[in-house]
Specification:
The complex is a heterodimer of chains A (83) and B (897). Chain A has 83 residues and is α+β, with helices and mostly antiparallel strands. Helices cover 18% and strands 42% of the residues of chain A. In chain A, a hairpin with a 4-residue loop joins strand 2 and strand 3. Chain B has 897 residues and is an all-alpha fold. Among the domains of chain B are: 128 residues, Up-down Bundle (Methane Monooxygenase Hydroxylase, Chain G, domain 1), CATH 1.20.58.60; 173 residues, Up-down Bundle (Methane Monooxygenase Hydroxylase, Chain G, domain 1); 110 residues, Methane Monooxygenase Hydroxylase, Chain G, domain 1 (Up-down Bundle); 48 residues, no CATH class; 61 residues, Recoverin, domain 1 (Orthogonal Bundle), CATH 1.10.238. Chain B has 28 helices and 5 strands. In chain B, the strands form 2 sheets. Chain B has a two-stranded antiparallel ribbon. In chain B, strands 3-4 form a two-stranded antiparallel sheet. In chain B, a hairpin with a 2-residue loop joins strand 1 and strand 2. In chain B, helix 12 runs antiparallel to helix 13, helix 12 runs parallel beside helix 14 and helix 16 packs antiparallel against helix 17. The relative contact order of chain B is 0.03. Classes of the chains: A alpha+beta (83), B mainly alpha (897). Chains A and B meet through strand 2, strand 3 and helix 2 of A and helix 24, helix 28 and strand 5 of B. Chain A: Its main location: cytoplasm.
Chain lengths: 83, 897
């Protein structure tokens, strides 16, 4: 378990695909990275789990909640992930 | 007594010559010529009176002084009268010589009295010589009336004068200096009278200037009251310058004798009185002595017996009172008596001394009152006293001891009585009749304790008796009561002893009986318990709910039951024995009158229980027989059912199995189209459905079996459940397989997978489905992926696993496999297709409006979208714009951010 944080500077797009959520009984995962995107540049890896979004614990978030949380970040987005 | 030497007579006729002297007789005759005729007259009167005053005692008188004495007879008589002595017998002749003789006798007598008669001859007298006669009479007067006067050691004339002076001394107007002029005023006479007899005249009324009155008064009174005849003449005295001394002296001598005689008589009387007084005093003293002696002796006589009284009193209080009385006696009563005795002795001694001094004989007390008597009586008293005191103290000590003993007795008796009270009652109790064994034992213990208590008291009872004995010996006053009490104590003691013994016996007897009963009870209990258990066991067994499933089981039960029945007689015997014990107990308690509630303490079970249970057992036996038989029948019936079921199941089971195989085969088949497969399967399904009837029938049989509670069936390996499950599985398998085929068809159509591809998928899947159960294990799948060229890390594989096996069953179905295989190429489309669809509806806008949704979609879906779609966050959007892109991606769980 390797937990790390990234701070992406805005605005969106952040350059990654989020998959999963509580309603899908799957952990929130990064399923794809836009090559050269901000997430990829920050060192996010495909298959990494999203632990928290903007310092909010993402374990129990539904897909929509996670989506909204990320959309709420405008100037910068802080993510804590786990490889 | 006058002596002769003192006899001197002197007659003074001088005027105022005061010297008095009595001359000798010789001198007298010398004054023959000196005799005054006045005086002669006076003398004659006076002397005559004087002689008559004496002669009247002889019963005769003289008239004429010179004549009547001539014969000498009256002279002799006069002398006799005056002296009180007898003269010689007078001569009774009348001759001269007779007369002379008589006169001579008289004269001799006078001479014999110590008077010197000079110149007085008998012849002159016989001849009647006046002078001589007067002289002789004067001599007589002098000698017999005056000579013996003795006043304060002064005698005769001087004495008389002194006497007159002394007697008249208190009367200041009287001054007696002589026998002539001092008397002239008469006051002297009166004073003299008054001095001796104040009652005869009132002197204060007399007057000096009335000499006549005074004189006459005095002469009258003297004559009337003093028995002194008139010898003087008042006028003569007054008229004569110097009255005749001799006449006055003669007259005064009569006075002297009258008074002084009285005085002498008085003195004599005094002396006598004195003597008598002394006598009387002595007599009184003697009487006093006698009286005191009597009293004292009386007192001693009274007291001595009291002191000698040795009657003991009963109580110490009384004795102490006696002691007190004795003390009183010692302190109050005796001392005065001691004093009395002392006084008596003193009196006695004084009396004796007085008597001795006054020349009287010694005093001899009357009989029994002698000093010695008194002394001895007193001694007796003292002794009695001493003895009494000692006796008192001894008695008191004795009584003290008695009191002490009596009290001791009382105390001990009371203590004992207290202890003993109620014991009789306790010992007479019949509490053992209703006592249980434990109680009897307790009673026995108590009784033991009591017995030792009793023994301990034996001593005390003996002590009490000993004290009573001593009280008897010491003669205690209330010994009767003591004895009575002692007796009752002893009686009660004996009684207690007897009762104790009896009670012991009763208790022991009862104890033994109860022991016996107890033993019986124990035995009863000992035997009843197992028997009861046996009975209970038997009852239980007999009522035992048996679940048997086989005929053999029933048979063995029946066999057991028969075995059991065989044991009944023995049990019955035991029952009899137990009842026997019980009856024995009843018999014992009845015949020995044990009234206690005879309950078996060792057993809660009674004979009633025993009997009841036995009856139950007896009843149950045939019941069981019946039940077993019933069961047997049932088992037989069940067996039949089983067989029937088994027959059916053995047909159906394999049939299902065959069908399942068919289906499996069918689905695994590679050759032929999906439609072909479908048709085959449908056919199969049809057949299956038609076969349901059999299954239902089997269900019916099964129900019967179940209702008969038959749960096993050795005639078939197939249970209804097997069949049912198999049947359902068959149904579901066929349905699922059909569904799978349908899905495959759909998928094929949707994904445009060709038949060939399908075959390939199928072949791969079959290949890796090692277990050939239509699903791949995780490892199988991994192997499959590797074979297809997927180089997977664990993470990726895990992700993929999540995708293909979202439920985590560990199995990958063919459908999932296909989905996975086809997804990779087309996974983005689905979400994009939806986005594209929304774009069309939103007329190429990046957002959609609510009215557009409502316009294009059915109301339900429209509202769903409106609710779920997030607001569009991009720029240039009107309010209420919705982000359908985010929504769509969210639908698939994938969002591009």
């Amino acid at each position: 378990m390797n937990i790390y944080s990234v701070n992406l500077s805005g605005p969106a797009p952040w350059g990654f695909r989020l998959q999963g959520g509580k309603d899908f009984s799957m952990p929130l995962t990064v399923s794809r990275l836009t090559p050269g995107g901000k997430a990829a540049q920050a060192g996010v890896g495909v298959g990494d789990w999203v632990v928290s979004i903007s310092d909010t614990n993402a374990e129990d978030m539904t897909h929509v909640e996670a989506q909204n949380q990320i959309r709420a970040a405008t100037d910068s987005l802080t993510l804590t992930l786990s490889k | 007594m006058m002596t002769m030497t003192q006899m001197e007579t002197t007659v003074h006729y001088d005027n105022g010559y005061d010297e008095y002297q009595y001359m000798n007789q010789e001198d007298e005759w010398d004054r023959d010529n000196l005799l005054d005729p006045a005086w002669e007259q006076q003398q004659r009167k006076t002397f005559t009176a004087w002689c008559n005053s004496h002669l009247r005692k002889a019963g005769t008188q003289i008239e004429n002084i010179e004549e009547d004495f001539r014969n000498g007879l009256k002279l002799m008589l006069l002398l006799e009268v005056i002296s009180g002595e007898r003269l010689p017998k007078p001569d009774r002749g009348k001759m001269r010589f007779h007369k002379i003789a008589n006169v001579n006798k008289a004269l001799e007598y006078i001479t014999s009295k110590g008077v010197k008669l000079v110149s007085i001859g008998a012849e002159e007298i016989v001849d009647g010589n006046v002078k001589m006669t007067l002289g002789m009479i004067w001599t007589i007067i002098l000698r017999f009336a005056i000579q013996d006067i003795n006043v304060e050691e002064t005698s005769a004339k001087e004495g008389l004068l002194l006497w007159c002076q002394r007697k008249t001394a208190p009367y200041r107007n009287v001054n007696v200096q002589n026998f002539h002029v001092s008397w002239k005023d008469g006051l002297a006479f009166c004073a003299l009278i008054h001095r001796h007899r104040p009652d005869l005249l009132d002197y204060s009324k007399l007057n000096k200037d009335d000499p006549l009155g005074n004189l006459n008064l005095a002469f009258d009174i003297a004559e009337k009251h003093l028995d002194i005849p008139k010898m003087l003449d008042a006028e003569d005295i007054i008229n004569t310058p110097k009255p005749d001394e001799r006449a006055i002296m003669t007259y005064m001598s009569c006075f002297y004798h009258a008074f002084a005689g009285a005085e002498q008589a008085e003195t004599a009387a005094n002396r006598i009185c004195k003597v008598l007084g002394v006598n009387q005093e002595n007599e009184k003293m003697m009487e006093e002595y006698e009286r005191l002696a009597s009293e004292l002796l009386e007192w001693i006589r009274r007291t001595t017996p009291w002191l000698e009284n040795r009657t003991p009193e009963k109580t110490m209080a009384e004795m102490q009172r006696k002691l007190e009385d004795f003390r009183d006696y010692r302190r109050q009563h005796k001392p005065p008596k001691v004093q009395e005795k002392c006084q008596l002795e003193i009196n006695f001694n004084t009396l004796q001394t007085k008597l001795r001094i006054s020349n009287r004989p010694a005093f001899m007390p009357s009989e029994g009152k002698m000093v010695s008597d008194i002394a001895s009586a007193w001694q007796g008293l003292d002794q009695a006293e001493k003895g009494y005191e000692e006796w008192l103290l001894t008695e008191i000590r004795r009584l003290e001891r008695l009191d002490h003993l009596a009290e001791k007795f009382r105390q001990k008796a009371t203590n004992h009585e207290n202890w003993a009270s109620g014991k009789e009652l306790i010992l007479s109790q019949n509490d053992y009749e209703t006592a249980t064994l434990i109680e009897i034992k307790a009673l026995l213990r108590k009784h033991e304790a009591f017995e030792s208590d009793l023994a301990a008291h034996q001593d005390r009872v003996e002590q009490i008796a000993a004290i009573a004995q001593e009280l008897n010996e010491l003669d205690y006053h209330d010994v009767a009561a003591v004895n009575q009490r002692c007796q009752s104590i002893c009686d009660l003691w004996d009684k207690l002893g007897t009762l104790t013994q009896k009670r012991r016996e009763a208790l022991e007897r009862t104890d033994k009986l109860l022991e016996t009963i107890d033993q019986l009870f124990i035995e009863f209990a000992k035997r009843l318990a197992p028997f009861n258990n046996w009975m209970e066991g038997a009852m239980e067994d007999l009522q035992d709910m048996f679940i048997v499933h086989t005929i053999e089981e029933v048979q063995s039960l029946i066999a057991a039951h028969e075995q059991f029945k065989a044991t009944l007689p023995e049990a019955d015997a035991e029952r009899q024995a137990l009842l026997g014990i019980h009856n024995e107990v009843q018999k014992i308690s009845q015949s020995y009158g044990i009234k206690a509630n005879i309950v078996n303490p060792y057993s809660t079970l009674t004979t009633e229980d025993l009997i009841e249970k036995w009856d139950k057992v007896k009843k149950l036996v045939p019941q069981r027989d019946g039940a077993l038989q019933e069961e047997m029948a049932r088992q037989h019936a069940n067996e039949r059912l089983r067989r029937h079921f088994a027959a059916q199941a053995n047909l159906i089971g394999p049939w299902i199995q065959t069908r399942m195989e068919d289906i499996g085969r069918c689905s695994l088949e590679i050759g032929g189209t999906l439609e072909d497969q479908m048709t085959q399967l449908k056919q199969c399904e049809h057949v299956i459905v038609a076969y349901k009837l059999n299954v239902d029938k089997l269900e019916g049989d099964h129900q019967l079996i179940q209702e008969s509670l038959v749960f096993d069936n050795k005639h078939t390996n197939y249970t209804m459940e097997h069949i049912r499950v198999g049947w359902e599985l068959l149904l579901t398998t066929v349905a699922r397989t059909i569904n799978e085929i349908e899905t495959q068809i759909l998928t094929r159509d949707a994904k445009g997978i060709s038949q060939q591809q399908m075959k390939e998928f199928r072949s791969s899947f079959n290949h890796f489905d090692r277990k050939k159960n239509g699903a791949m294990e995780t490892d199988d799948f991994r192997a499959c992926l590797i074979s297809m060229g997927y180089d997977l890390g664990e993470v990726e594989f895990a992700r993929i696993m999540i995708l293909v096996d979202p439920n985590g069953t560990g199995k990958v179905s063919f459908q999932s496999f296909i989905d996975f295989m086809t997804r990779e190429t087309a996974d983005t489309d689905t979400a994009e297709q939806v986005v594209a669809s929304f774009r069309i509806l939103a007329t190429d806008k990046p957002y959609i409006l609510m009215e557009e949704l409502r316009r294009e979609l059915p109301p339900e879906q429209a509202e769903y979208c409106i609710m779920r779609m997030p607001p569009y966050a991009g720029s240039g959007a009107p309010p209420g714009a919705l982000d359908y892109t985010a929504f769509s991606t969210a639908l698939y769980g994938e969002s591009d951010l």
